[in-house]
Amino acid sequence: LACGVTHFFSVYTVWNPAYLPEGLLKALTAVISMVTAAALWLILPRLVALPSPSKLAAANAQLNEEIRTRWELDRQITAQNAELRASNRLLAMREYALDHAAGAIAMADLKANITYSNQAFATLLGVAQVSDLVGRNALEFLPDGSTALADLLRNGQWIGEIGVLRPDGETRQAAVAAGLVDFGDDSPKLIMASFL
After folding, report:
1. Among candidates 144, 146, 132, which has minimal Cα distance to 174?
2. Which residues contact residue 19 at a Cβ distance below 8 angstroms, ignoring those fewer than 6 apart?
3. Please, which residues have CB within 8 angstroms of residue 192's CB and are 6 or more apart in sequence?
4. Are 136 and 111 in contact (CB under 8 A)?
5. pTM of the predicted model over 0.85
6. 76-131, pLDDT tens digit by residue?
7. Cβ burial 154-182 (10 Å sphere, 16+ → b, else e)
8. Residue 161: pLDDT band by 50, 70, 90 thresholds?
């Protein structure tokens, strides 16, 4: 701007003798030019360090590839989430079916500690709440169960009748079908039994 005004004043002083303002304006323009040159000298290393257009294009291509990769991962995660939701729905339906089955169903670890029971099993045993069974040993309620448990662990399954001892002292006979459940991985096996 100062440079343009200097040229304008030079034209003006051809017809009007305004040499002092023209000289001051030229001095101001010179100072501004020197400050600009000094500032340019200071930022020159940063200007030289700017990446070339080919480096910028390569970086842009890499970013585009990362975006494509993230979109693909996002698509995979969305698909896996949909599969997980479907599996959870199926699991909830199965759990509901087990919990509301008319037959007594129980699961236990290999030492017969109960890990799951439906309400029908609690009713068979004469226990009010399913939560009162979890963690207890099934052999408390099955006085003749030690032999059946040993056969089950040896053969992988056991079918027969067994006496069920209720807390009130009453003993009931129940038909039992029990088997070992193996998940095929490193998780421990468990016992699943149904009682009629």
Report:
1. 144
2. 13
3. 105, 106, 107, 178, 179, 180, 181
4. no
5. no
6. 999 999 999 999 999 899 888 888 888 899 999 999 999 999 999 999 998 888 89
7. eeeebeeebebbeeeeeeeebebebbeee
8. very high
Confidence of residue 1 (pLDDT cuts 50, 70, 90): low
Distance CA 162, CA 138 (A): 12
Signed CA dihedral, 187, 184, 192, 178: sign only: negative
From residue 117, how far is each of 39, 47, 95, 174 by CA, in Å? 81, 74, 11, 16
Residues pairing with 162 in the sheet? 174
How would you classify residue 126: left for phi > 0, otherwise alpha for psi between -120 and 50, otherwise beta? Answer: left
Q: What token pair was written down for 2?
A: 């100062």
Q: Which two tokens stand for residue 107?
A: 């699961």
Question: For the chain, what is the radius of gyration of the CA atoms?
Answer: 44
Contacts of the segment 154-160: beta carbons below 8 A, 24+ positions apart: 156/180
Contacts of 158 (CB under 8 A, 6+ apart): 148, 149, 151, 152, 176, 177, 178, 179
